Amino acid sequence: MLTLLALHGSGRDETDLLEFCQQLAPQAQIIAPRGPFAQAGGFTFFKRGSDRSIPAAEVMDRAASWVSQEGNANLPASGDVVLVGYSSGAIFAEALLSVLPKRFTGAILMRPEPLSPNFRFPGMPEIPILIVAGTHDERRRHDDAVVLNEQLVSAGAVVSLHVIDAGHGWARHNADLTLARSWLATIANI
Question: Which domains does the chain show, CATH number per domain?
């Protein structure tokens, strides 16, 4: 059975991606944890530096802790698990992939940012990953998606990178959902 691990963005909560995931794969089991840190009326999976930088080592520690505590308790023992991360949830998904790449069947990373410019993922041969970036994303550098793509490909992942007409929020006409659904159909029996 397919399981989607839905990781919300900063200032959001565990309900944020439920509708998206239900539309993406109606028969899938959805696991949607809440980030542990309060932020802007919602929650986040990690705290950024005061300059908005990502403390990569700290995020990796949080991911390792999540896997050992919540992941072992909440993820199914068998079946396909696909990460679905949005914004900072996509960054946390990158950390989870780095900590335990063989546990995940694939990942959908929407509006992501690399953990660091020189981050090196462990080997993840042929893990399929979809990156969806926005052309007008005011919260990302113009090359973030390309840098992340190169880092993942260097680790052996099979990456499908799409830059769509969107800002940091959802694209018009359900473009994120359409891309994700089409991509997911190529890797899972849905």
Answer: 2-187 (3.40.50.1820)
